[in-house]
Amino acid sequence: MKDITQNMVKSLLSDRKLTQLVIVAVIVFAAFSILVPELFLTSRNFVSMAFQIPEIALLALGVMLAMLTAGIDLSVVSMSNLAALSTAYLLVTQVTEGDGNVYVWIVITLLIGIFVGLVAGLANGLIIAGIGVTPILATLATLTLYNGIAVGVRNGQSIIGLPEEFVAIGNSSLWGIPMPMVILLVAGVGVAIFINKTGLGMQSILVGANQDAARYSGISVKKVLIMTYTLSGGLSALAGLIIASRSASANPDYGSSYVLLAIVIVVLGGVNPYGGFGTVTGVILATGVLQMVASGFNALRFSQFFYQLAQGFVLVAVMVLNVYVDKRRMAAKTKKAPKES
Amino acid sequence: MSYITPVSKRKGLQLFGSPNELFLIAAIVVLSLVIGLNNSVFFSIATPFDLLRSSLIEILFALGLLIVLVSGGIDISFPIVGIFAGYTTVVIMLRFELDTYSLIIPLVLAAIVGAILGSVNALLIAGFGLPTLIATLGTAGMFRGFLLSYVGSVYIANIPLGLDQFSTADLLSVETSAGTLARLHVLVIPILILAIALAWMMRRTMFGRTIFAIGGSEESARRMGMNVRWTKARIYILVGALSGVAGILYISLQRKADPYDLAGTELEIIAAVVLGGASIMGGYGTVTGTILGVLLINLIKDNLILLGVPGSWQRAAVGLMLLIGVIAQAVADKRRLKQSVTVAKEDSE
Fold first, then answer.
1. Is the pLDDT of residue B166 over 50?
2. In this predicted complex, what is the ipTM?
3. What is the DSSP string of A189-217?
4. Pick from B137, B315, B330: CB nearest A151
5. Torsions phi, psi of A278, nearest 5?
6. Which residue of B lies nearest to A67 if distances are taken between CA atoms?
7. Quick check: is B24 in a domain?
8. Residue-range domain boundaries for chain A
């Protein structure tokens, strides 16, 4: 056990950006613990944070995958809502009270939800890689389109009254760990393996670092991009299903502020917005930091709009800070170089 | 071989130049015919008047966004800047009891507030070199959070007199056969003048040409000795001021100041500008195309029901149009690239 923690500490310290993030996390934790200990430092608060982190982290992981390839995916929230609505719609229409096959239906509808997300992501990938539309515009268009379909199909209404058995999944715990967190950890490990261990994943980082170089070295940029955006759709669908299960409902306009939040998390998590670098640990850690800020603000009775202000500020501040750090490191490098020669 | 950009090929203020603009006009005409033949209510003088009224504010925002897109950037904070400036102006005027009939005071105030917010974008984008999407996403969150936390989060119904009166300032009002009044708002004229002025600025001034140059290739513009940073800063301050004016006029036309308004309309306006032919890669875009894009989107939005499509599909329709716009553009870009490659090959042979 000691070895494992030592290893974890070592790996967290080995990466400069992760180290910074751990320091930020500790500061945020300490600040709210001192300011509002009676509300922040409670096991209830941490359990509720553990239930809220996964859905946002999954969306952020989707954005991260796109950003690794020097793109962006603005449609994650729309895809997640579309997937949640599809599953919820099927559950409500197909499952009747006292049906013995409830669990079969839950599995089928969950798979369909994920499939909807994958197809939406695949469409993004085809538009971006196949037709050559810039990721910003392509996903902005599909953001509107997917959201529009979700609104149109159900006339803008949300679906409520999902079967108890389905609701139980998102609100249960496995060995004391909230189920959504278990799903996030499994998905996170999966994404980490994809990025670091599979050929396609490593190629996606190369594409992000330098698309031309990647193409000349024989990487099929198209295939990599399509795969990346499809996966992003799958992760978003997973987030949507967790949201649906936790809230026992599906709403076409849920979490419209999550687009900003997901990008804040990804940038804070040390992912390079110009592509080529990013870690799953960073993104999950950054989600934790933002969630602590959210619940801390909540305890301090700050409004959600103040939280939005803080998100925007964090995004801008981190980006500006990165510019400075990069400049200083460049300057340090050029100073060193003449001495060596 | 000389590189000719599509813009410089055209002379002066030629109105219907590019195939894209012709296509938009054709689309508007055909669509109008289809709607009108399905429902004769459509063929009334009220239809174009209403269309113009619902498009006016969007045209202002769209023209600002056009400048940003031409320079190779994107801005998603402009509706927030607009409502921030407009709402703050109303709050300031009511606080200092400036309940006047003046229109100049609110317009100038809103432009100033907008320019201040725009300069935040300018600082981040031109000063620190942040990617425009991320910078404006961040500032949109900041501005909206600040507006609703500190300026106010309540709906103001009694806006200053001048603004209130202006909402019914009609240039023309015609009695239709149905007995209702079809009214054309006076704002059509200043916006038309502004559009012509902007078109002239983009084509004829050093500032305008520099914007195109930066959008075409930022590095080339820099090496030609253009002041890229200062130009970019001016763009975002100008767009801020323009959005501020659009915001206060929006409040005037609505006859109420609601700080929750306009958020989210950026997608529709981006769709309109992109449909209008402006390239998000920068270096290309026209005022005429932009206006046509806004008119087309509003025509579809306002008449979906007459086309037999339920109103709840409005958003999907906007999304689909945006998608068609970006795909058409990407396909055209690819073809142009291929052509220039083949031309270059022929040249070298």
1. yes
2. 0.83
3. HHHHHHHHHSHHHHHHHHHHH-HHHHHHT
4. B315
5. 170, 150
6. B134
7. yes
8. 13-306
